[in-house]
Amino acid sequence: MFKKMLMVGIATCSVLTFSFPTQSSAHANTHTVQKGESIYKISMKYGVPAKQLQAMNNKSNVEIYPGEQLQLPVVPSESEKDLLDRLVEAEAKGESYAGKVAVATVVLNRVESDRFPDSIYDVIHDGYQFSPVLNGTIHQPAGNESKRAVQEALAYQGYDRDSLFFYNPDKAQSSYLSSQEVTTVIGNHEFLR
């Protein structure tokens, strides 16, 4: 009887442990270089292109040194990717494909920035940052174009880490955002740093 109860308890714990989606990125956002490692070996370990790893770390060549900290691209869990897909759909509905990619890029740039939380989930749910979180439209499914835009933004990480904000100045007023440097304008959105 005890053995049967123990097995049921272990099975229940296993189900609870693996049933809930994770809300943090799939791996840490940094890697400490070990002796004998190369950009290529590190890129293979994390499943990211070597050129992207170089871009993330502003490296014009492949020289790295033991003890050096390398920034890694954000690799989202499935639940984080779905959340980002839905945010892009809600925030950039009616905007161009480039605008959707730029919205996703802002979220990824924030994950990499010291000024914001360290996961996609936490960036998206950080206070009053994104109106779809506040008005509930983030719960609506994402369309194929938004999903493709998120994929492109994930592949593009490291090549544009400037934009940390965006807004539509025709719909929202912000003295803080209007005082930031504009990096680009796409459709109705201004992107800023």
Automatic annotation (TrEMBL):
Taxonomic superkingdom: Bacteria
Keyword DNA-binding: no
Protein name: Cell wall hydrolase
Species name: Halobacillus seohaensis
Family matches, as SMART domains: LysM
Keywords: Hydrolase, Signal
UniProt signal peptide: 1-28
Domain LysM: 29-72
Keyword RNA-binding applies: no
GO molecular function: hydrolase activity
Annotated Gene3D superfamilies: 6.20.240.60, Cell wall hydrolase SleB, domain 1 (1.10.10.2520), LysM domain (3.10.350.10)
Organism phylogeny: Bacteria, Bacillati, Bacillota, Bacilli, Bacillales
